Recover the amino acids of this structure.
């Protein structure tokens, strides 16, 4: 009986998913460059961990373009910027991702003090729609700017390769977690992120899609309170939301 109920609930979820998904827009060259002003739908600070800093996240104009700025509040804590991949790439495209890159610039908040060496990395994991689709946590090597004795570091590109089957995203994810980590330091800094890009096995850019900016006239189920979104939330709860939450806590770094 439970199996039949679960099957019925999952079928209902699939039927409703088309209505619960917001309107999408694609960047010009396929990467997330923030030029359309949108980020809140798929990026936020991860602050639930004991070592996490309550960094301030905002979109600013920096070095001639719009970039996502992480302003560190407590330099002795770890700044963790979370990107939700299921809100950036289509499921079939997530499964094709073999490499993720992002441009990072580190600047001291007072504009004069050198921020010192800042260890940064990209970590990934995933929560499947059922346990067999979970993606284990793994991460890139820790990297810091080549020059860190000046107030504004040279821009560096972080790279995360997804090569092992246990670390690769798939088409059956409730969450595709991409976390950009800047380890603790002694100097308050601002970390700028730009040009989040995904590549397939042949080195081709996988086009990012994400909710259009409000200026484009787009609306989302979260913003409008659409009935399908509410029903979808209920369906997820009936389908065993408690178990899913448990796996999320286990998999997130």
């Amino acid at each position: 009986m439970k199996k039949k109920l679960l099957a019925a609930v999952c079928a209902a979820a699939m039927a409703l998913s088309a209505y619960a998904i917001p309107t999408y827009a694609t960047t010009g060259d396929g990467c997330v460059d923030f030029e359309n002003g949108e980020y809140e739908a798929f990026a936020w600070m991860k602050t639930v961990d004991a070592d996490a800093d309550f960094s301030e996240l905002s979109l600013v104009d920096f070095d001639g373009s719009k970039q996502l700025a992480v302003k560190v509040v407590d330099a002795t804590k770890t700044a963790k910027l979370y990107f939700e991949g299921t809100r950036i790439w289509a499921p079939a495209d997530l499964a094709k991702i073999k490499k993720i890159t992002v441009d990072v610039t580190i600047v001291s908040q007072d504009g004069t003090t050198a921020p010192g060496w800042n260890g940064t990395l990209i970590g990934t994991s995933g929560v499947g729609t059922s346990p067999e689709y979970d993606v284990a946590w793994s991460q890139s090597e820790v990297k810091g700017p080549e020059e860190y004795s000046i107030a504004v570091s040279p821009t560096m590109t972080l790279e995360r390769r997804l090569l092992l089957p246990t670390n690769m995203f798939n088409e059956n994810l409730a969450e595709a977690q991409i976390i950009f980590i800047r380890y603790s330091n002694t100097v308050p800094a601002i970390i700028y992120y730009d040009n989040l890009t995904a590549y397939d096995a042949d080195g081709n850019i996988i086009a990012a899609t994400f909710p259009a900016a409000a200026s484009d006239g787009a609306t989302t189920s979260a913003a409008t309170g659409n009935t399908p979104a509410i029903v979808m939330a209920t369906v997820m709860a009936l389908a065993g939301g408690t178990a899913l939450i448990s796996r999320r806590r286990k998999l997130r770094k």
About this structure: The chain has two domains: 1-22+225-253, 24-218. Helices lie at 2-20, 91-94, 221-224, 227-238, 241-251.
